[in-house]
Structure formats: C-alpha cells, structure tokens
Amino acid sequence: MSYAVPATTANRTPDPLPHLVEQVGAGGVFVLTGAGLSTDSGIPDYRGRDGVRRVMPMQFGEFVGSSAARRRYWARSYVGWQRFRAAAPNDGHRAVTSLGELGLIDALVTQNVDGLHQAAGSREVVELHGSLTQVVCLTCGDRSARHEVQDRLGEANPGFVEHARGVAADGSQVSSQIRPDGDIVLADIVEAFHAPTCLVCGADALKPDVVFFGESVPRERVQLCLDALDASRSVVVLGSSLAVMSGYRFVRRAAARGIPVAIVTRGVTRGDAEATLRVDGPLASTLGALVAALR
Predict the structure, then answer these.
(1) Can you give the pTM of this predicted structure?
(2) Which value, to the nearest 10 degrees, does the dihedral of the CA atoms of residues 129, 98, 37, 183 take?
C-alpha cells in the first residue's frame, strides 16, 4: 500500500492506515463505492489498474434506438443473470457494514447495481445507478421484479442458456465473461432470442432499472447525495476509478468545500489530484485492518 497527499506533492509515508483510521474514526463519513469493491465477489470492473476500459457496455442511446439492440442486451443479460445473482458479499462489503454499525458512516452511496452492500447487512444504501433487481417499461412506466422477467425469458427461450454456454453455430467457443452490469460477452447468436415485452402495454421497451452509460442519474437522487456530502465530515472512495462524472462530481465538490477525501483502490483514479489521502492497495485487507483498528 502507498500513501500520498495530492499529486502535486511528493511527500509519502510507508503506512497509510493511521491516516485512514484518523479520518474515518472522526465519523460523519460520506462513503462512495465502485465496481472495484465487488471484484472479489467475482464481478469484474470495467477498467484495469491503468484506468483503461476493458469492455464497452451498451449505451443508452443504442438500447432505446432499436428492438434489435434490446434483444441483444436481454439475450446477454438472460445468460449472465444466474452467475450475477449467485455473487455473494466479500470481506470488503462486510467491512463497510461494520463501519456503519460503529456509527461512523453518515451516508453510503454506491455506483454498483449488484445489491451486495444490502446483502452484507448495510442499511440505507443510496444506489446511484439503480438496481438490477428491478425492471421498468420505458413506454408505460410499469415496474416488475427482475426474477419474474427471468422466468418469462426462460419460458420463451428454452435451451438458449445451454446453447450460449456451448458452441456457436460455426463451432467456435462462445465467451461467457460476466460484466459489471450483469450481462455477458456473447457471440452473435441472438437473432432467434425472444426479448421480454411489457405485460401492461405490450411494448418491447423493458429496461433494467439502472442508469446506462450515456444516461443521466435522476436529479433528485443526485441532490440527495449532494446534501449528504455537504453535511459530512469527510469523504472515502472505495474501489472506484472515478472515471464517470456521476461519481467524480462528489470528489470535486468535497475538494471545493475543503472536505478531506480519501481514495482507497488499486491503480490510478481521476480524483487523485483532489485526494488528501490516497491508498493504493487491496480493498478487503485494507478495510479489514481499518475496522480492526477502530474497534
């Protein structure tokens, strides 16, 4: 692990933990978590330690632009859902829950859509980008549970999962790499897939209730987070490269208001220049040591 004050300064100390303990131990912490916190649960993040995006998720404009794009998304999501749903909280999630139980966290905001904070026992989690457990119709606004849509997809597409996990029609292997948003990398075998339609209005405009790339976070949700940030004593970012403005905005706002910002993650982040404490290290062990020191 390494510690550094903002990038403009060369000062370093061999042990960042006491600084992190001091900041978090003061309480009133606004915690922002990203995909890096869920990698130990088997859900990969979008970027490597160098900050370069490894996979390109479907964009919002593409999703709403055609029935073919929505069919492709749902085919991939249908195959990936079982693995995504089976993911369990890791020690990092449990450490965050412990910090909440110690009364040190005033607000817990996650960019993740996997529900693992709640599964680990955290309460009052603000899901900045929504949750994959819900599906919304973009035409009429009707909402349904993701597991119900999954059941309907299974009935409409018998044998599709087995085919997707086998080989493509030309004999080549089909990749089943799961992505952070729950779908998988899937070869072009989706033409015959039957995408879900709304049970209320019949439109093929069902979308997981999450914020896609190219889509805006609901304004009221952002304001809720900004109000919590303004009332906090410090900010701690866990497992996020802050490459997306929806999360980076909180670091920028904190820095502008003189609120200390600690960033704990592997590799570079967009917010390194604004950080007052930077820890480049494994999340689970770092957070475990933090909780142990605070107890």
Answers:
(1) 0.86
(2) -50
